[in-house]
Amino acid sequence: MHCFKVLRFVSLWSKVPLGSLHPSSGIVAQFDADSYSQKVNLGVNTYRDNQGNPVLLESVQKAMQIVREKNLDNEYPPIEGLQPFIQAAIKLGYGEKYYEKNGKYIAGCQVLSGTGAIRLGFELLNKFVTPGTQVFVPNPTKSLHPTIAKIAGLQSKEYRYFNPITRQVDFSGLFEDLQIAPNGSIVLFHACSHNPTGCDLDIDQWRQLLDLTKQKGILPFFDMTYQGFTSGDMDQDAQAIRMFTEAGVPIMLGQSFDKNMGLSGQRTGCLSIVCSNEREKEMVVSQLNLIARSLWSCPPVHGARIAETILNNQKIYQLWLDEVKHMAQRIKTMRQGFTKALKDLGSPHDWSHLSKQFGMYSLTGIGQLQIKELMEKYHIYLLDNGGISIAGLNDTNIKYVAMAFHEVTKNTRL
Ligand SMILES: Cc1ncc(COP(=O)(O)O)c(C=O)c1O
């Protein structure tokens, strides 16, 4: 009889620590577990309608119907994605006029939304920039910018963006930091609806940055995850893209249709890069393909088919533009309503920054103790930096949220 020694496997995973995700992920879990009927989630990072629900836009429904009727197969798409989608996304981002003249020089690749655009773009940069080239990101910014830079092997550095005292863009700080950045640096800009501050640059500030970009040979990487959410107008929100490209600056652009089409579960986006000629474009696309192949092989098709149908069908496109306008207007109305409600309650603080900011996000300026009290006493959930998504407010909860904000801040300095 053989005698076997029983070996116990020591699991490789037994010492793995808990990975901590972005704070908004924790908020979702806490919010879901809360049974209080008046609970409010201000940590949502997709649009909510006036009933507090995610949107299924009419334009998206119409496009889905058209896609369904085409009875398309589910074969692999090309690695770079669906061309009709890529071209329509580029046209939307750069504007028709620029696209007609220069579209043939723009390398495009369908990606997994805004996150995928940053990942693919940063991987490409890491492969070809001079070693040591830094990528400058605003402080604060979406945490995935520095995280992805690190994963992609790029060194990221912050430039000043927000002044917590004035609660506005710290433009002189921003300009100073980029002035002393090494020539040829990569600079990430939020094209509109800055997350998390809600503070955007104005046309004059973009003009100054354009001059600096040309002077220093900066490579601008525009993250345009919220086109339409600042002004309700696609062209207006892309003004920086238009200004830089018209001036001949070779930019990189990440676009997402998660928010403005409500397609977050479909991971629909586009990365594009302005090249000098068609051969350069071909080479860049080939490199994008090589990298995308090892990241996700090829992108999912359904969201791209929906988005492409919307963008290429004049009637549905017009309907979508109106729907985006409506979403942007609702956010604006909530901003003004919230500020007014706090004023009407006699708040000793100046909340006017909330109505002056743009897009879904705002940094309220409230501190840790007030955030804790809002969660524990009033069942209102927000980010631990005091950031809120204005889209979480609606006609039903706005007065309650204002009352709670007033109660937790009336005896404190902000
Ligand atoms: C500024 C910014 N960039 C990128 C992303 C990621 O976008 P997506 O959800 O489309 O991947 C977000 C998402 O919230 C964002 O706010």
The geometry reads as globular
Helix- and strand-based class?
Answer: alpha/beta
Give me the CATH architecture of the largest domain, please.
3-Layer(aba) Sandwich
The small molecules bound here are: pyridoxal-5'-phosphate
How do the strands line up in the largest sheet?
A: 2-10-9-8-7-3-4
Q: What is the first-to-last residue Cα distance?
A: 79 Å
- Listing every helix as H and every strand as E from the N terminus to the C terminus, the arrangement reads HEHHHEHEHEEEHEHEHHEEHHHHEHEEH
- Main beta sheet strand tally, sense and closure: 7 strands, mixed
Number of helices: 16
Please give the share of residues in helix: 40-55%
What's the CATH C level of the largest domain?
A: Alpha Beta
Poorly predicted regions are none
CATH superfamily of the largest domain: Type I PLP-dependent aspartate aminotransferase-like (Major domain)
